[in-house]
Design goal:
145 residues; alpha/beta; D-tyrosyl-trna(Tyr) Deacylase, Chain: A; 6-stranded mixed beta sheet; two-stranded antiparallel ribbon; 8 strands; Gly-tRNA(Ala) deacylase activity; D-aminoacyl-tRNA deacylase; tRNA-binding; EC 3.1.1.96
């Protein structure tokens, strides 16, 4: 399981004309699920995401995690994160989870995130989404379970 996290001033995800999720300051998380992932991997990754210190303290140093910052979390499924790009000019997706497993673990991740963090918004699994954000920093990290 992979999460591309970005510290944002704001972010939102649209499906057609519908805004499915929006946050102010906080973290945008693009989530990729691999075929061997399970709930334990999701739990491990969520703990890492919520504990990762990417927000500035009173001295401007990245010492605060998401709960300490009081920011929102916007979770968007993105299967392309698990692509194999080592060879050729076309990504391979053989390591990606099946749509059923991907959706199951995405929903599980969201459920657990909502139990552990007060502000969680999301995209729609499998939908064609338009994601907009203002990356604050820019600060972007790739985390893996």
């Amino acid at each position: 399981m992979k999460a591309l996290i970005q510290r944002v001033s704001q972010a939102q995800v649209m499906v057609g004309d519908e805004c499915t999720g929006r946050i102010g300051a906080g973290m945008l998380l693009l989530l990729g699920v691999e075929r061997n992932d399970d709930q334990a991997a999701a739990d491990k990754l969520l703990s890492k995401v919520l504990g990762y210190r990417i927000f500035g303290d009173e001295d401007g140093k990245m010492n605060l995690n998401l709960p300490q910052s009081g920011g929102g979390l916007l979770v968007v499924s993105q299967f392309t994160l698990v692509a194999d790009t080592r060879k050729g000019l076309r990504p391979g997706f053989s390591s990606g989870a099946s749509p059923a497993l991907g959706e199951q673990l995405y929903d599980y991740f969201l459920q657990q995130a909502r139990e552990r963090h007060p502000e969680v918004a999301c995209g729609r699994f499998g939908a064609d989404m338009q994601v907009s954000l203002t990356n604050n920093g820019p600060v972007t990290f790739l985390l893996e379970s």
